[in-house]
Amino acid sequence: MLILTRKPGEKIRIGDDITIHVVEIGKGNVRIGVEAPKDVSIMRDEVVERIEEENLQAAKRNRNTLVHAASMLKNKKMMESGTTPTGKPAARRRKVVTPKQPLTGDSNKE
Predict the structure, then answer these.
(1) 24, 18 Cβ separation under 8 angstroms
(2) Number of domains in the chain
(3) pLDDT above 90: residue 104
(4) Which of 3, 35, 70, 87 has the greatest number of CB atoms lying within 10 Å of its CB?
(5) Within a domain: residue 29?
(6) CA dist., res. 52 & res. 83, Å (int)
(7) How far is Cα 1 from Cα 84, in angstroms, rounded to an integer?
(8) Do 34 and 15 form a contact (C-beta atoms < 8 A)?
(9) Would you say residue 106 lies in a domain?
């Protein structure tokens, strides 16, 4: 890292197309101006760190969503094919039928 001492109104050049202007020096801070081509991104470090953290969290949420969706799709395909995750045929479920009228021989007849 190069460390330079500058006074208000002085400049620092970086390459041919970037100029740093020391605008003002206050108590505990320095105001600077940056002249650079439009294709050069200029951001405060804390902003870059926050963006990176938010992108990381969004990527985790997206991954969890994708894993969940893939699992649901896999389960749907297995149900349609009649297999289980182990590859064994799925057990058939018995359909429970409730009679609409009492069965013959029912002791609760009126």
Answers:
(1) no
(2) 2
(3) no
(4) 35
(5) yes
(6) 43
(7) 60
(8) no
(9) no
Distance, CA of 33 to CA of 71 (rounded, Å):
52
Helix (H) or strand (E) holding 16: none
More confident residue, 19 or 96: 19
DSSP 89: B
Within the chain, where are the H helices? 45-81
In tens, the pLDDT along 29-57 reads: 999 999 999 999 999 999 999 999 988 88
Residues 49 and 75 in one domain: yes
Helix (H, G, I), strand (E, B) or coil at 22: strand
Domain-embedded: residue 92: no
- Asked whether residue 31 is assigned to any structural domain, the reply reads yes
Question: By residue range, what is the domain housing residue 53?
Answer: 43-83
Helix (H) or strand (E) holding 30, with range, is: strand 29-35
Q: Is 93 helix (H, G, I), strand (E, B) or coil?
A: coil
Tell me the CA distances in angstroms from 38 to 18, 32, 34, 41, 61, one per residue in order.
Answer: 11, 18, 11, 8, 33
Q: Tokens 């991954």 correspond to what residue?
A: 63
